[in-house]
Design a protein that fits this description.
mainly beta, about 0% helix, 4-stranded mixed β-sheet, rod-shaped, single chain
Amino acid sequence: GSSPGLTVTRTTQPAGTAGVPYSQNLGATGGAAPYSWRYVSGTLPGGVTVGTNGTVSGIPTASGSYNFVARATDITTAYSMQSFVINIGAALVITTPVQLPNGTVGVQYAQTFAATGGTAPYVWTIASGSVPTGLSRSAAGALAGTPTAGGSYSFVVRVTDLGGLSTIQTFSLTVGTGLAITTSPQLPNAVPGVPYSQMLTAVGGTAPYTWSFVGGSIPPGLGLSLTGVLSGTLTTAGNYSFQVRVTDATTANTTQT
């Protein structure tokens, strides 16, 4: 039967983390060792079992607070039955999308990494790879600065929580060159009554580009499309000067007369 001399020593077990191997002994004193343990009732974390030696072990599959009853029996068949509590925290996960927003040479850039689970505060480091030149990261998870060279970059970020748990993620970041209009300011001449078409071009930034009229006088009969085509049929000869703007996918823009 039950024995007042057989006592469970710890009813609230150390906390665990989902996805991280867990192993703790329930622990008992008194009676006549060794003890034999078995699960009686209640809910154990998914993936976790109670061994006959009193070890609660496995890889928890989900976070939550779990309550269960286990029984310790000594070699005289005296036993002690006790309720136990195990708290399982959420797994440490980096939540920032792996494809970071594009950057542009000479334009200030800032990105903050985020994570959930584990135990805050988190510490962030670059585990491997290269961040764009001109950018630096902080332990708080900020990547900021002004890129000085274009290119495609790939690097691995590690986050470590207060308890020493860590996880990594590979990120990609594309840095484009500065947005510039490459069409000569002196456009080919147009002739009244003759259909005219001229494509305006740009480089750098992040395609696609959107073109717009800013000011001045477009030759009568001609118009500028969103894709950068100046076309139509000139109606009146003359010298015309006008300004256009090109805007890229990140809303960076530049103008040309």
